[in-house]
Specification:
Strand order of the largest sheet: 1-8-7-6-5-4
Largest sheet: 6 strands, antiparallel
Structural class: alpha+beta
Helix content: 40-55%
Number of strands: 11
Shape: elongated
Number of helices: 15
Length: 369
Amino acid sequence: MKASYRYWIHFLSIAWSFTCIKPSSSLAQIPKMDFWEADLECVKHSFEDPENQSVQQEISEFRNRSGIPAAFAIEVNKIVCLTGNCRKLELRLLWDGVGDYLGFELIENKPLTKTDHLEFDKEDYEKLHLLLSDKESVLMNMDQEALIINSIKMDKEVDGYSGATKLSLREYLVRDAAYTCYVLWHTVYGPIQERIREILTRRANSEFLDLLFIQENPKYKIWAIDYIQRNPSYYPRFCSVIINHIKSGDDELSIKALNIFGREKLSEMDLQMEMATMIDEFPGQRQYELIWKFQDLDRIYDETLLILLNKIAQNKINSSLVGYVYNLINSENLINQSILDSLESLLNHDNIYIRNLTKNKLKYAISQK
């Protein structure tokens, strides 16, 4: 029995989360788990391929019980051989719930082929999946002419579809299937993906964003933050929600949540105070990044500084960060007696490093009088 390959992320309908399916080491059939058969609602969306407007296609969206997209899929049917004499490329491509490449699935008895119609083997499929997972691929800005070198002198390197593959790409692409790789990559990251993102954008409203923020998968939350950044009218409603996600253990989500707060937003006193109040709950690197963002502001409010000084007194801020906090305190802040009192109390801190930093800061305060 011929092997079938499904290089995609397995959606667990009970937990509504993603986990990788690893292909087996043999050519045994990978266990079947279809979106088509899962406990998901399938919604069809029309798609008009700019390259073939005479053929109307459909994108299948699979939604969970909350109406959140779990994945998108489309059947691809293309001729990838420039001579027109090759077998059609037929498979299903899948994107995840936010429109990122998820994987591919072969249609039964229709394997991918290369030179002289030789079928892809297991390693070829794995290599293709890795290539398609690379959204920053060198294929992005490469045209067909740059990909293929028509050269009779390179008979041993001839690509089965259209000529000789550039040697610099041979280890990156599936051998003897360069044009297949090229066509599939541009299919994954072309108009279909744009249409999926359009579908998501049209659904976006406050209720949809609320649902995204409570999903387990951080990719939904990252998409929501990106959307809010592009549509700032939603910012007031979701400001505190986004701040809360700076605490995330997912590095990408934590960075994305912090970076939505630029210079203009952080100049607001209420936001400064809220950030300072929560700083010890943020991952260590985010704490540094927040203080560095504060250093770029024209003004740090006394109320913000008092919160930070109290965090130092309670040992809720790493001592290595104290010097950066003290750099935020300027001569205008030192007029405030409450700030001076807080600094003087830190002269008795149990950490000698903090005591020495505090002495130097108070010496500076005296010199400014």
